[in-house]
Amino acid sequence: MAGVEIRHLSKRFGQLHAVDDVDLSIREGEFLVLLGPSGCGKTTLLRMIAGLERPTAGEIHIGGAPPRARGIAMVFQSYALYPHRTVSRNISFPLEALGLPRAVIEQKVRWAAEMFSIARYLDRYPRQLSGGERQRVALCRALVRDPKVFLLDEPLANLDAKLRNTARDELKRFQRQVKRTVVYVTHDQVEAMGLGDRIVVMDRGKVRQVGTPHEVYEDPVDTFVATFLGQPPMNLVELQGALLGFRPEHFLPVAHFGANEALRTFPLSVRRVEYLGSDRYVYGSVGGAGATVIAKLPATVATEIAEGSDMEFAVPERALCYFDAATGARQRR
Amino acid sequence: MLLRRRHGGTATTVKRSLADRENVLGAALLAPALAYVLLLVGVPFVLAIVLSFSTATAGSLSFGWAGFANYRAILADPIFRRALANTAIVTIGSQVLVVVLATAAAQVFRAAFHGKRTARFVLLLPWAVPVSLAAIAWTWIFDSTFSVINWTLKVGGLLHGWLYWLGDPTLALVAIIIVQAWRIFPFATVIVLAGLSSIPQEVVEAAIVDGAGFWRRLFHVELPLLLPVVAVAVLFGVVYTATDLGVVYILTGGGPANTTHVLPTLAFQRGIQGADLGQGAAIAVFLLPFLIVVAIAMLRLARHTEVGTT
Amino acid sequence: MKRVALYAAALGFMAFAGFPFYWMLITAFKQNRDLYVGAFDTRHVPWIFNDPPTLEHVRLLFGQTDFLRWIANTLIVVVAVVVVTVAVAVPAGYSLARLTGRWGERLGIGIFFTYLIPPTLLFIPFARLVALLGLQNSLGALILIYPTITIPFCTWLVMGFLRSVPWDIEEQAMIDGYSRLAVIVKVVPRLIVPGILTVVVFSFTLVLQEFVYALTFISSVDKMTVSLGVPIALVRGDVYHWGALMAAALFTSIPLAIVYNLFIDRFIQGFTLGAVKG
Fold this sequence. Notes:
The complex is a heterotrimer of chains A (333), B (310) and C (278).
Chain A: E1 4-13, E2 16-26, E3 31-35, H1 42-50, E4 57-62, E5 72-75, H2 87-98, H3 102-115, H4 131-143, E6 149-153, H5 161-178, E7 181-186, H6 189-195, E8 198-203, E9 206-211, H7 213-218, H8 223-228, E10 235-239, E11 242-246, E12 252-253, E13 263-275, E14 279-286, E15 291-298, E16 310-316, E17 321-324, E18 330-331
Parallel strand pairs in A: 3-7, 3-8, 5-6, 6-7
Antiparallel strand pairs in A: 1-2, 1-4, 8-9, 10-11, 11-17, 12-16, 13-14, 13-16, 14-15, 17-18
Helix pairs in contact in A: 2-3, 2-4, 3-4
Chain B: H1 2-6, H2 12-51, H3 69-76, H4 78-110, H5 116-128, H6 131-141, H7 148-155, H8 169-197, H9 201-209, H10 214-242, H11 246-251, H12 263-273, H13 277-285, H14 288-307
Helix pairs in contact in B: 2-13, 3-13, 4-8, 4-10, 5-8, 8-10, 9-10, 10-14, 12-13
Chain C: H1 2-29, H2 32-35, H3 56-64, H4 67-99, H5 101-114, H6 119-133, H7 139-145, H8 147-163, H9 168-175, H10 180-186, H11 188-209, H12 212-217, H13 226-233, E1 235-236, E2 239-240, H14 242-262, H15 264-271
Antiparallel strand pairs in C: 1-2
C-alpha cells in the first residue's frame, strides 16, 4: 500500500509551464481527484506519476520508492485496449510482462473479470464490446497487477451521459472494495465532487486548492476555485473595491429567510426566469454596475417571480465570501 | 444519387432528373479509362494466354493452334525450370531482406533527429531511380575486375579469395537479390513508417505502463498491429520483384550460361528476341500464379482491415 | 548512448541506400587512369579522387553519344503520356470516388488490380499489336502503351485523394442550385489541383522509369529513351564507357529523385489506403 509524494514537480514544454512547481501528498487509500479546465496540467501531472513523461524538475515517490519500481496501473481516456488481443489476453498482458506462470495468470484474469462482471466477454475482441464494457476491461487490466496506485484519465468522458452516473457509482464502490490509492483526472466538477475524498483544483500548471469536496466548495481559496465549482457558478459582485461572492442556492427572495438571520440584501432586477423542474434559475442584475447574477430556487420555494420586476433578494452573511478585486484571493473577515 | 442518400428522402422529386444525370455523368467520365483498360489491358491479357497455345511468331501476323505443345516444351526444358526456381528464390530472398531492413529502418526513422529530411531523401533514392540505371550502376559495382565491394571487403580483411560476382551462378543470384532488396526496401520503409504512425499512441503507452519492455512491446503490440501494413508492402514487393526484367537483364542477361534467368527475362529472350511468341507467352503465363496469390491476399487483407482491428 | 546508436543506424541505412549514387558521382568525374585500376590493388583507394576530377566523360556523353536525343525522345513521350493520363484518369477517379457509389468502389479496385498485370506478360501480345499497327521501333508505340501503366495507378491515386477532400463544398454548390455538371466544371478543378499535380508527377516518374516496353519496341539507337539508351547503347563493341555511363545515370537520377521526394507522402497515402486507417 502506498501514498504518493510529489515535491516541487515541474514540466516545461519550451516556454510553456504545463506543470508549475506542484507539491502534493497523496494519502494511502484515498481517492484523489485532479480537477481543472483543459490545459491546466492535470493530465501532464498524471502522466508524470505514470512515468510516461519525465519531469523537468522535482520528484515523485510512490510508497517511498523512486520511479523505477512504480507499481502503478493506468486507465486511459480511450481505454487503449490492445485491438488484436481478446479481452482475456488484454487483461493478462501485464502479467505476461511480469513473467508469471500460465496457471497463475489464468486465475488472476478470472478473478479480475469476475470483479467487474465481464467474465462472459473473455473470448471477445475489443471491437465487439460497447464503451462501458471496454471501460471495465481497461479497469480489469489495471486491477490484475495489484498495483499500489491506480491512475485514471477521464475514464467516464467517452460514456453516454446516462451510463456515467452508474459508472461513477461502480467506480467508487470498486475503490472502497480494493482500498487502493486512486488518482483521478477530470474536468467535470460534478464527477470530482461525487468521487473524490479530496480534490486538487488546478489552473495553468499550478495547484489552486487542495481539500475535501466540502472544503473546496464552501471555502474556496480564490475566485478561480469559487467559480469553477458549482453549477451555476458562484456570483461575483463588485462592491466598494472588493469582490463579494455568494452561491446561487444561497441567493433567495428576502421573504424566504427567518427574521433572526443576519442577511445582506440586494435589490434584484429580474431579467429572465428558467423553469427547470427541480429548480428555477432567476437571471438578473444587482447594483448600479448591473452585474449579472443568478439565483437558484429549489422547487420548494414557490414565490412568484415576474420577469422585468424588481425584487428584494438576500444572502445569509455566513455564506458570503470576500475576494480581493485585483488578485482574486480570498479575504477572511 | 449520393445527395439523396445523404439527406434522406428530402427533395427526391427535384433530384430525379439530376440523379439520372449523375449516373450518365459518372459513366461518361469513367468511359475513356474503362475503354483504355479493357481494350489495352484486358484484351491483351486474354490474348497473352491465347498466344501461349499458339505457334505465333513475332515476324509475321500468322496464328496457328499448338495446343499444349508450348507448355510441354518449356516444362521439359531445364533452363525454364531453373528460371522458375530462380524467380521464386529471388522473390522470396529479396523480400525477406526487405522486411528485415524496412522494419529496422522504420524504427530508426520514426525518431526525430537532425537532418532527417536529408536522410529520408537519400533513403528514397534507390526507389526513385529508374530500374535500368540502378542496374547498370550495380553492374559496375559488381564488375569482376573493378568491383569496389571486393576492394572494400579485401581492405577490411573479410575477403581472401576473389568474388567473381556476375560470373558465378550462385554469386550472381546473390547479387540480384541484393539489388532487388536495395531497390525496394526504401518503399517498404516508407509504408511501414506510415503504419507505425497509425498505431494509436495510447495503446503503446498502455503497454509501457503495463510493464512491457522495448522487445515485448515490439513483438506483442507493434508488429501485430503493423501486420496489415507490412503485408501490403510485401505484396507489392513480390509483384515488383517477380515481374521485374530490368535488374536481371542488365546485370547478367540471364547468364552465365542461362543460370540466372528468371521468368520475365526468359520470356523476353524466347518470345521477343527469339520471335517465338507462343513460347514466350507460355513462359510469362507462369507469372500468373504469383500474381493471383498476391491479388487474393490483398483482397483478404482489405476485408480483414475493413472489419477492423480497432 | 541511445542517441549515438540511433545516428549510427541511420547513417548505416543511408550508406547502404546511397553508396551506389556516390559511386556514380565519383566514376562520372574520375580520370580513366584513376578509374580503371584493378580492385585487387589495395594501395589504390577507389572511393576518393586520387587524380583531379575531369569533365571528359561528361563531354563525351553530351558530345559524342545520343544522350541528348534520348532526353528529347523521353520528353516527347512523357508529355504525351502525361496529357493522356490526366485527361483520362482524373475524370475517372472523380467519377469512381463521387458519382458511382458501391459498384464504383469495386470497379475502382478492379482498375487498380490491372496495375498488377505485369508488362513482362503483356509485352508478348503487345508485340503483335504493335506489328499490326505498324508502330515498330517508334515512339508512338510507347505513347500508346505507357498509359496502360499510368492510367490504372493514377485513377486509384485520384480516388484516394478525393476521399480525403470533404464533400461539403460540392454539396453546398449543389444546394445553391448548380447542376451536377456545373459543379464539376466550376468548383472541382480548384479542389482537385493537388490531385492533378500528383498525377502529373507520377505519370512523369512512371514513364521515366519504364524499361521493359522500351526495350521491346525500340530497336534503333536514335529512337531510344534515356532509361533504355543508357544501359544498352552506351557500349562501344564490348567496352562499357563507365565514366560516361555513370554520368548519364547520375544526371537522370538526381532530378527525378528530387521531384519524387516532394510527392512521396501523397504516394504513400494512396498505397496504404486500405491497410492504414486515418
